[in-house]
C-alpha cells in the first residue's frame, strides 16, 4: 500500500504560467514579458487592468503615471481607495503590490468590503505591467467622456431652471474642469496640447 499523503498529484496542482521573453522596442536586448494571466472575478474593465498592472509595477513607474490620474477617474469607491493606497505607497517609494496595498488600507482604516472585493478583482484581472500607461489612458479617457456627458446633461437641465446670470459661470466652470481633464489625457498620450 502506498504511503498516505496530503499532497495533490502533480497533474492536479495549480501551476503559474512560465514567463516568456520578448524583445523590447528600445533595444535588441531581451527581457521578461511582465503579463499577469487572468484568474477570475474581474470584469475586464480598463480600471481593473490598470489596478492589476499597478500592483505588479515598480513604485517609480506607478508614480510617474499617477501624476495624470485622479482618484475620481475611477467610478467605484473601492477602486478609489486602492488608487489612494497605491498613490501613497508609490510616492513614498514603497512597493505597490497587493500585500502592501492591503496593509496600507488596513492601517489607515480603509479596508472596506468594497476595497477587499476590488483588490481581489485587481489581483486576478490579468494585465501587463508594461501597459500601465495605456491602461491609465483608457481609464482617464472613459472618465473624460463620462464627465463630458454629465456636464452636457447638467447644462441642459440648468437652461430651463437657473437664473440667466448663473448659466455662463456654470458653463465656464464645467468647461475649465473638462479642459484640465483633457490636458491630463493628452499628457498620458504623449501630446503637448496646452
Automatic annotation (TrEMBL):
Q: Show where the DNA helicase DnaB-like N-terminal domain sits.
A: 49-139
Q: Name one Pfam family in it.
A: DnaB
- Record keywords, A-Z: DNA replication, DNA-binding
Q: Which Gene3D superfamilies match?
A: DNAb Helicase, Chain A (1.10.860.10)
Q: Which InterPro entries match?
A: DNA_heli_DnaB-like_N_sf, DNA_helicase_DnaB-like_N, DNA_helicase_N/primase_C
This chain's protein is named DnaB-like helicase N-terminal domain-containing protein
Amino acid at each position: 500500500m502506498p504511503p498516505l499523503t496530503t499532497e495533490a498529484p502533480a497533474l492536479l496542482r495549480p501551476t503559474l504560467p512560465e514567463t516568456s521573453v520578448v524583445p523590447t522596442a528600445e533595444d535588441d536586448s531581451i527581457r521578461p514579458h511582465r503579463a499577469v494571466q487572468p484568474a477570475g472575478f474581474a470584469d475586464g474593465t480598463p480600471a481593473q487592468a490598470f489596478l492589476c498592472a499597478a500592483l505588479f509595477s515598480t513604485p517609480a513607474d506607478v508614480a510617474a503615471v499617477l501624476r495624470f490620474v485622479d482618484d475620481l477617474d475611477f467610478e467605484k469607491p473601492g477602486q478609489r481607495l486602492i488608487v489612494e493606497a497605491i498613490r501613497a505607497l508609490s510616492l513614498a517609494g514603497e512597493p505597490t503590490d497587493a500585500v502592501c496595498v492591503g496593509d496600507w488600507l488596513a492601517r489607515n482604516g480603509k479596508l472596506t468590503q468594497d476595497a477587499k472585493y476590488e483588490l481581489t478583482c485587481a489581483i486576478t484581472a490579468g494585465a501587463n505591467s508594461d501597459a500601465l500607461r495605456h491602461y491609465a489612458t483608457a481609464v482617464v479617457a472613459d472618465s473624460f467622456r463620462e464627465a463630458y456627458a454629465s456636464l452636457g446633461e447638467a447644462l441642459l437641465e440648468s437652461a430651463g431652471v437657473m437664473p440667466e446670470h448663473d448659466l455662463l459661470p456654470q458653463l465656464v466652470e464645467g468647461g475649465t474642469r473638462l479642459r484640465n481633464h483633457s490636458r491630463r489625457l493628452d499628457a498620458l498620450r504623449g501630446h503637448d496640447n496646452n
